[in-house]
TrEMBL record:
Keywords assigned: Cell inner membrane, Cell membrane, Membrane, Transmembrane, Transmembrane helix, Transport
Membrane topology reported for the UniProt record: Multi-pass membrane protein
One GO CC annotation: plasma membrane
A Pfam family recorded for this sequence: Sulf_transp
Transmembrane segments: 6-26, 47-70, 82-98, 118-138
InterPro entries: Sulf_transp_TsuA/YedE (IPR007272)
Cellular localization per UniProt: Cell inner membrane
The keyword Zinc belongs to this UniProt entry's keyword annotation: no
Native species: Rhizobium rhizoryzae
Coiled-coil ranges from the UniProt annotation: none
Family indicated by similarity: Belongs to the TsuA/YedE (TC 9.B.102) family.
UniProt-recorded name of the protein: YeeE/YedE family protein
Length: 140
């Protein structure tokens, strides 16, 4: 096992957990990305949240930093842009329907032993496993 296949994911997981804990301590709210994204674009009914804008800006800045200094494989996307946008909208609808996304339910909700988050995480992980099974055994 190489350094990058073990330590980088471990460091990433620790940073995600640490940032979620710090966000909860400083703001009294969980760090759910879908909720922060909605508040950054003013979709929560209370106007634009500059905290949400800053949080999303930090995610983009961190990604740009990592892309500049770390070596990642080149990813080729063969799907049409329209299909990608449609998929993004469906995911966004699902996160609103499910009252959160993987970061809100999977990271923060499970840590708080929230029954709603446990059910949501079991559902989306099960659907993900079935999707992988279908895509691997019934391609095309």
């Amino acid at each position: 096992m190489s350094y990058s296949s073990f330590l980088l994911p471990l460091a990433g997981g620790l940073l995600i957990g640490l940032s979620a804990a710090i966000y909860l301590l400083l703001n009294g709210r969980i760090a759910g990305i879908s909720g922060l994204a909605a508040s950054a674009f003013g979709l929560t009914g209370s106007g634009i949240s500059w905290l949400g804008v800053g949080f999303l800006g930090g995610i983009l800045a961190g990604a740009a930093f990592a892309a500049s200094f770390l070596r990642f494989p080149i990813i080729e996307v063969s799907s049409s842009p329209l299909l990608l946008v449609a998929g993004g909208l469906i995911v966004g609808f699902g996160t609103r329907l499910g009252s959160g996304c993987t970061s809100g339910h999977g990271v923060c909700g499970l840590a708080r032993l929230s029954p709603r988050s446990i059910v949501a995480t079991v559902v989306f992980m099960s659907v993900a496993a079935v999707t992988v099974l279908i895509m691997r055994h019934f391609p095309g």
